[in-house]
Amino acid sequence: MSNNLTKRDIVLDIYEKTSFPQKEVRETVQLTLDAIANALAEGRNVELRNFGVFEVQIRKSRIGRNPNKPETDVVIPKRAVIKFKAGKELKAALKDMDVDAI
Predict the structure, then answer these.
(1) pTM
(2) Where are the domains of the chain?
(3) What is the architecture of the domain spanning 45-102?
(4) pLDDT tens digits, residue range 23-43?
């Protein structure tokens, strides 16, 4: 059993708190995730107040090593990555987290 939060868990949590039809909640959650993904794919940052910011960053091309063949150089191409910066409230919640219980 995983401790990960899934999209299904989010849908059920919202459904239980609102009693909106589960199908509508699922569609709304998916539309929200689609909007976030589309903005990031367009190179736009996504700022969610009281939660955090998803930032698109460009990593420069660099030379890497293949661990199985260290004598061979491998070119790692320039690429876009997503970085998440937690907002103030989330940082505060993480500060209070019992890390020994995880």
Answers:
(1) 0.79
(2) 1-43, 45-102
(3) Irregular (4.10)
(4) 999 999 999 999 999 999 999
